[in-house]
Amino acid sequence: MIKLSNYISKENIFFIDKNSKLEIFDEIFEKVKNNKYIKNIEIFKNLILEREKIVSTGIGMGFAVPHIKNNIVEEFFISIFILEKPVDWNSIDNKPVKVIFLIAGPENHNLYLQILSKLILIIRNFKERKALLNSKNLDEIYSFFYRF
């Protein structure tokens, strides 16, 4: 069983105050451009945006999970973006997004599914989802995920 805390660091948790999906993606790319695991940020950007064009990564309940599995990323990591105000993301439940989990890693489908499954279990659990959405700062969010 994987531990999400192995893929999350305090350096990859951000608070964003933007008004649109496009502005948020610009900010996401700015925040991860120096990530040591990304070999080429331009290819990374294009792959994330192309994936988003196929179908929205807004999975509902206030969450979006843009993701990439490509060998331009050396190791899996999760970046967490907490939005200061909810933003329309064309989510499956038509509700705005408040939290974004960017999952990136090499072409390892099994590990990707384990990470995604664990995040989905947290989101679907009302108590855990509420605790995450009520987290107010970096330390609270990091501590929340340390349990998983």
Please tell me about this protein's structure.
The protein is α/β, with parallel strands linked by helices. The protein has five helices and six strands, in the order E-H-H-E-E-E-E-E-H-H-H. The chain has helices at 21-32, 41-54, 109-124, 126-133, 138-146; strands at residues 13-16, 58-60, 63-64, 67-69, 77-87, 97-105. Strands 1, 2, 3, 4, 5 and 6 form a six-stranded mixed sheet that branches. The chain is globular and about 35 Å long. The model has no long low-confidence stretch (mean pLDDT 96).
Distance between the termini: 10 Å
Beta-strand segment tally:
6
General form: globular
Main sheet specs: 6 strands, mixed
Number of helices: 5
As a whole number of angstroms, the C-alpha radius of gyration is 14 Å
Structural category is alpha/beta
**Into which percent range does the helicity of residues fall?**
25-40%
H-E string: EHHEEEEEHHH
Record the SSE blueprint.
Elements (H helix, E strand, L loop, with lengths): L12 E4 L4 H12 L8 H14 L3 E3 L2 E2 L2 E3 L7 E11 L9 E9 L3 H16 L1 H8 L4 H9 L2
Overview in brief:
The chain has 148 residues and is an alpha/beta fold. The chain has 5 helices and 6 strands.
